[in-house]
Amino acid sequence: MKKILIINGPNLNLLGKREPTIYGNSSFEDYLETLRHRYPTCDIAYFQSNIEGEMINKIHETGFTYDGIILNAGAYTHTSIALHDAIKAVTTPVVEVHISNVHAREPFRHVSMISAACRGVVIGFGLDSYRLALESFLG
Ligand code: DQA
Predict the structure, then answer these.
(1) Candidates 3.90.79.10, 2.60.40.2970, 3.40.50.300, 3.40.50.9100; correct CATH number of 2-138?
(2) Residue 132: helix, strand or coil by DSSP?
């Protein structure tokens, strides 16, 4: 059984309530339930934090034993060299995910500090971005 961790960063605890025209109406917990049903052979763990250091701690904690990490770093994507370094420091591959198409939004969202440290990037498919990232670990 593959061990996959999804990490969601700041403000993603408000999915379903937060700017629904951009991020949709579904809570992440509801989405996660459908994802776990669809992939019963995967052990999908979930962690959300609004605090950069807690996300880094979680990457350190899991980054030598899990098969994959799916990371939506929220706005820290655009600022955090510390997250870039944490991703580089571990052996577990990390796939960067975004719900919205950040390249069709404000210019400050066009830059990612973490992409170069990640195995790949999935952007703009709504919540389905997480599933597509999960598929990349199953091939
Ligand atoms: C996001 C895009 C980021 O620019 C934003 O700060 C988020 C969510 C996305 O999933 O589309 O919080 O990562």
Answers:
(1) 3.40.50.9100
(2) helix
